[in-house]
Amino acid sequence: MGQTVRFGVSMTEDLLTELDDWIARKGYPNRSEAIRQIVRAFVSEAKWEQGIGNVCGAFTVIYNHHNHDVAHELTHLQHKFGDIIVCTTHVHMDEARCLEVVILKGDVNQIKTFLEAAAGFKSLASVSPSFVSI
Ligand code: NI
User: Fold this and answer.
1) Which CATH superfamily, name and number, covers 54-133?
2) Of 4, 19, 20, 24, whose Cβ has the fewest other Cβ atoms within 10 Å?
3) Cα separation of 36 and 120, whole Å?
4) Which of 47, 51, 52, 21 is nearest to 34 (CA)?
């Protein structure tokens, strides 16, 4: 964390009104906190798109455990990418369905490769993965 620096920003009244309305809806305590969050999200997304730096986040998948191919592929993938996997949680949802959450941390390009490989699974559903720069 660096030193906090103040700077001025100019914008039209209309745009400022839109910003203040958004801040009120989101419940941010002030413009500075809102703008910090906006910039962090923008920088994080830009780094993700450009493949820069490290990220952390989760990949969530629901699959039918009677489909042994999926269970096997998921285990195989986790062994292959062990250096970027922090931990995995497996929940037996019911007699057929399993939910698995894989927490990942590391190089953004390695994590993208993991997600591309996992996208090919014949899962029942997967939650949109979300990663942030660290
Ligand atoms: Ni299970």
Assistant:
1) ACT-like. Chain A, domain 2 (3.30.70.1150)
2) 4
3) 36
4) 21
Q: How far is the CA of 113 from the centre of ligand 1 (A)?
A: 25
pLDDT of residue 122: 73
Tens digits of residue pLDDT in 116-125: 888 877 776 7
Task: Output Rg (C-alpha) for the chain, integer angstroms.
Answer: 20
Residue 27 banded pLDDT, cuts 50, 70, 90:
very high
What is the Å distance from ligand 1's center to 63 Cα? 9
Domain boundaries, the chain: 13-50, 54-133
Centroid of ligand 1 to alpha carbon of 68 (angstroms): 11
